[in-house]
Design brief:
It is a single chain. This protein has 121 residues and is an alpha+beta fold. The chain has 4 helices and 4 strands. The protein has a domain at 25-102. A two-stranded antiparallel ribbon has the order 1-2. Helix 2 (60-68) crosses helix 3. The longest helix is centred in the C-terminal third of the chain and has 27 residues, at 76-102. The radius of gyration is 31 Å and the shape is elongated.
Length: 121
């Protein structure tokens, strides 16, 4: 006996494929064998504006390049921290040199010692 009045099953909806996850710049650089470093965040202490911190992210290729360049440390974080401090030091020195070149009187103190002599510090 046929059941002509039986409800037809509803078609199964095609499962939506999950969208392909977009790769991060770090993942792309790592796949290409390229070094990668980025500043993820920067915090400044509102009570003491001279204090702050940076959160960095890097890949193994970046650390390997730093080691080849002579940086050493017990951990990858130590090596990257050493590099970042060096970069910051160079920025400060370059800024100081530019200010010194534009206004040498600001950083140089002269004192007349008499007899045509001058102390410069």
């Amino acid at each position: 006996m046929f059941d002509f009045f039986r409800k037809k099953p509803e078609p199964i909806a095609a499962k939506e494929r999950p969208a392909a996850k977009k790769k991060s710049p770090k993942e792309l650089a790592t796949e290409k064998g390229e070094p990668y470093v980025d500043i993820l965040s920067m915090d400044v202490d509102p009570e003491n504006l001279h204090q702050g911190s940076f959160e960095l992210d890097w890949n193994e290729k970046f650390v390997a390049n730093l080691i080849r360049a002579g940086y050493v440390g017990k951990t990858d974080s130590d090596i990257v921290d050493q590099w970042f401090q060096n970069v910051c030091r160079h920025v400060v020195m370059e800024t100081w040199e530019q200010e010194q070149a534009m206004n040498p009187q600001r950083w140089t103190r002269k004192r007349d010692l008499g007899d045509g002599r001058t102390e410069v510090s």
